[in-house]
Design brief:
Strand content: 5-15%
Number of strands: 16
Bound molecules: zinc ion
Strand order of the largest sheet: 1-10-11-9-8-7
Radius of gyration: 26 Å
Number of helices: 25
Amino acid sequence: MKRLMTLICFATAGFAISSCDSGKKNDDFKWQIDQFADIRIMRYQIPEFEKLTPQQRVLVYYLSEAAKCGRDIIWDQNYKHNLAVRSILEALYKGYPGERNGEQWNQFMVYLKRVWFSNGIHHHYSNDKIMPGFSAGYFTQLVNQTPDSLFPSELGGKVQIIEKYLPIIFDPNVAPKRVNQEAGVDMVAQSACNYYEGVTQAEAEKFYASLANPADSTPISYGLNSKLVKENGKIVEKVWHLGGMYGKAIERIVYWLEKAATVAENDHQRQVIEKLIDYYKTGDLKKFDEYNVLWVNDLQSRVDFVNGFIENYGDPLGYKASWESVVNFRNDEATRRTQTISGNAQWFEDHSPIDDQFKKKEVKGVTAKVITVAQLGGDCYPSTPIGINLPNADWIRKVHGSKSVTMDNITYAYDQAALGNGFLEEFAWSAQEVELNKKYGYLASSLHTDLHECLGHGSGQLADGVKGDELKNYGSPLEEARADLFALYYIMDPKMVELGLIPNLDVAKVQYSNYIRNGLMTQLTRVELGKNIEQAHMRNRQLISKWCYEQGKADNVIERKERDGKVYFVVNDFEKLRQLFGQLLKEIQRIKSTGDFEAGKALVENYAVKVDFDLHKQVLDRFAKLNIAPYGGFINPRIIPVTQGDSVVDALVEYPDSYVEQMLEYSKRYSYLPLYN
Ligand code: ZN
């Protein structure tokens, strides 16, 4: 809904596998530190942390501590046995005295790492229960040989542990799915998540329907911060607040937020933090709305954060929010880039290659705030979004607007980690292409995204009498194509250099080569063999690439080459390709502006959907050999306080490099909840 997620590195901005020449020395920084099952673990840097003021750095430190104190909450929310399972697995890891090698032990480690990654025993993305690759017998052996003292006493003895947790971990029929939204089932009963107990879906829906008042123009988010249970035959909410459910963790979050309030950048930000504390203390959702209104209006502070029960993806009914935190500060340089683009919106509109009648007389660009993430917590860790748009309450968005941010250093880390994975080398025709990509790829894809988001979608206008929904199911790939073409057309405009957005047009050439290679070939790595292309963004990319390939054939604008039986696509004439982008933009704008359904349908069906089976198979084979895990996540940098006497006066950053150690450290330092809540 409001979260921008990424599956694989090159899905990030659509296509780029690239790097940046922004002057950072990254040569010896290890971006990817672990890989297991379908997961890659990476690190991210916090560039310009040292350019914050000492007070801002201390603020980041306090907020970062608050970001980690809710870790147990998300584990418990995901499944009520998760904290107990984690404590058992970690006890085995720490205390098992036997051999730590061989297939069974290795599989145990993979399972432990996967459970850490998912904040529980269900896959973070598919929601399916993770099945261990080691045997139940081996588990029993590990438990029996590990010293008793390492297991929490709440679990009883080893006999009880084995009896109770064997089915929880090994039986595929016990809690098979964290969230089940299948039509026709009782979604509450069929979902393992811990947001309801003893109530049916119908009872929960009835309960919340009775609270809502249709005449209320500023409704609170009913049910957002509580577990719904039946006590003595009565349905009640166990509210998550200080003194209530999850109170022990919330107490620590509040402790750090109170410190943060003392070093806030300004009065407004202090009010934001104090209102959040007030909400945590009372659990009053009215206060949460007041907090959100204050937060969305804080546009001055450099340091910013999310901390709370925010997103409802984890509840099949969509009432309950998982706990998460993101601490960040504005990336001034990148934000200036989006400001420059938006500030020149009218120039771009006036010079667009579309028919004059479809140009907007007055156009306003959107400025996206680009942020640098300093710490991830709860549901945003280790698997993180790459952009956020908050708050979620519709009435607040309507009346007060929302904050839309992109997480530049996370995208950058994905990009850097991808550099070493051999992907580009496999699919790019020449070493020169790879080199230019390393130099300009990151800048090119960032700029493309900015042009697409800040200008592309907002450009152009409909003819009189056209409503905008005429293109039906073809509307969304065509709309994405329009925004992409706007970006592609302009990224090679000399105006880009003039505005100081790129040093030279090589940046655009990198983008053109990447776009075509991806659209004609590499994006097929995400499609199952034998299937057509379904996803709107992917349809748009193939549409553009294939159309330009076909239209430019006479002039050999894009060439299909082969070497050692492998296919490559090479751009021969960048200027002509730009003209083709312009022509297609003009046509798609006409289709949209006039609502020409038949022409839109023909474009999509002829160019965007079908896949060449042999090429697809080849691409999948080549990709499989690279052994790139589809999902990625991050460990956090460590924010270290600098003290003078009793007070924290500054903070430093360190970049740890062990996934296992960070997980164990967090379990040791930030476990505030009982195993069962
Ligand atoms: Zn778009």
